[in-house]
Amino acid sequence: MTRPVVAHISAAALRHNMAVVRQHAPRAQIMAAVKANAYGHDVALCAPVLA
């Protein structure tokens, strides 16, 4: 019997990760592609953090 795969997305962790990327590459432009409802991870949560 198989169990469904579940991924929990933390907006705070995603925000932190984006800040770390910006610290390491301050002049780089970041473009995030959020497709298909963020592949089930809730586009309403992910998109504002990545904008």
From TrEMBL:
GO terms for cellular component: cytosol. GO terms for biological process: D-alanine biosynthetic process. Keywords: Isomerase, Pyridoxal phosphate. GO terms for molecular function: alanine racemase activity; pyridoxal phosphate binding. The keyword Glycosyltransferase does not apply. Its cofactor is pyridoxal 5'-phosphate. Residues 9-51 form the Alanine racemase N-terminal domain. InterPro entries: Ala_racemase, Ala_racemase_N, Ala_racemase_pyridoxalP-BS, PLP-binding_barrel. Gene3D superfamilies: Alanine racemase (3.20.20.10). This is Alanine racemase N-terminal domain-containing protein. The lineage of its organism: Bacteria, Pseudomonadati, Pseudomonadota, Acidithiobacillia, Acidithiobacillales.
